[in-house]
Specification:
Helix 1 (13-24) links the parallel strand 1 and strand 2. Strands 2-1-3-4 form a 4-stranded mixed beta sheet. A two-stranded antiparallel ribbon has the order 5-6. It is elongated, with a radius of gyration of 16 Å. The longest helix is centred in the first third of the chain and has 12 residues, at 13-24. Helix content is 22%, strand content 14%. It has one domain (5-121): Glutaredoxin (3-Layer(aba) Sandwich). It is of the alpha+beta class. It has 3 helices and 6 strands. The termini are far apart.
């Protein structure tokens, strides 16, 4: 039974890194390419609740209609912001990962290590060359990992 899901965008380096870290733990997650198969409203609301983050924190600005739609304006309710994400899935920040230990927006990618129930099997280096897991499968604390 698979109990890890990633809401993934294969064009996103962070999303690819998170998927790699999950697989480095020996887990083959359910991969949902959310731009092709967006979550429905109930699922999106549930994900936000599980992540325990403000709705606005899930909005992505870069490469989206965020500014055009003026989504930074305080006039929008959470429900309206969710409706915008449903109408424009590119507004949903990624990757989102759910596991038995919780759900997180995994930015930076090593945040996923906090909710994986299986240890890393070996070293892992992100696409940009940053090492995040050593040869013994232990997390490497990088100066920039607290971003």
């Amino acid at each position: 039974m698979n109990n890890v899901t990633i809401y993934h965008n294969p064009a996103c380096g962070t999303s690819r890194n998170v998927l790699g870290i999950i697989r480095n733990a020996g887990i083959e997650p359910v991969v949902i390419e959310y731009l092709k198969t967006p979550p429905d409203k109930a699922t999106l609301v549930s994900l936000i609740a599980r992540m325990d983050i403000p709705v606005h924190d899930l909005l992505r600005r870069k490469g989206t209609p965020y500014d055009e739609l003026e989504l930074g304006d305080a006039k929008w309710t959470d429900d309206e912001l969710i409706d915008f994400m449903l109408a424009h899935p590119i507004l949903i920040n990624r990757p989102i990962v759910t596991t038995p230990l919780g759900a997180k927006l995994c930015r930076p990618s090593e945040v996923v290590l906090d909710i994986l129930h299986q240890p890393q099997k070996g070293a892992f280096t992100k696409e940009d060359g940053e090492k995040v897991v050593d040869e013994q499968g232990r997390r490497i604390e990088n100066k920039d990992s607290s971003r």
